[in-house]
Amino acid sequence: MIGSLVATAFWAMVPAYVPNNAAVLAGGGHPIDGGREWRGARLLGDGKTWRGTAVGTVVGVVIALVLNAVNDPASTAVGVALPRFEFPAAVALAFGAMCGDIGASFLKRRSGRERGAAFPGLDQLDFVVGALALVFLVDPAWATNVFTLPVIAAVVVMTPVLHVATNVGAYALGVKNEPW
What we know:
The protein is mainly α. The protein has one domain (2-172). Helix content is 69%, strand content 2%. The chain contains 8 helices and 2 strands, in the order ααββαααααα. It has helices at residues 2-17, 19-26, 50-69, 71-78, 87-110, 122-138, 140-146, 149-172, and strands at residues 37-38, 41-42. A two-stranded antiparallel ribbon has the order 1-2.
């Protein structure tokens, strides 16, 4: 039961887990906030760019389509009927994850934190909140079917663990400047 719950939660969130990493790799470009400030601090900062947001979203959608293509063998391998992604849900998960991260950047600037500064809790779940909020708004039937309360609970528990592990790994490989 727990294994199938974790498998479903992980599978359903992969299109939201990948976009921010893809955005970092795409990096650069024009900042979304255009350098604007509010109350003496940048709105978002140089780390939130139009290119990164677009690339992250596209990569998340492509990941969902790839998962759809391998759904049958993957479901058989894990012994669980893994969800298939409807296109609107795929876009909402990927773009929602990007929006959640952008929203967190705004909150970080408002709290006086600089780019890259840790904000425990927010750093680990910002994109989850954005992805879930947008997918429930855009494709509520799909979202309600896939993201049951137990699946959401599994996502909330496993995401911080995955987030910390992948960030520490990226830091060790020299891909990130800080391990959070």
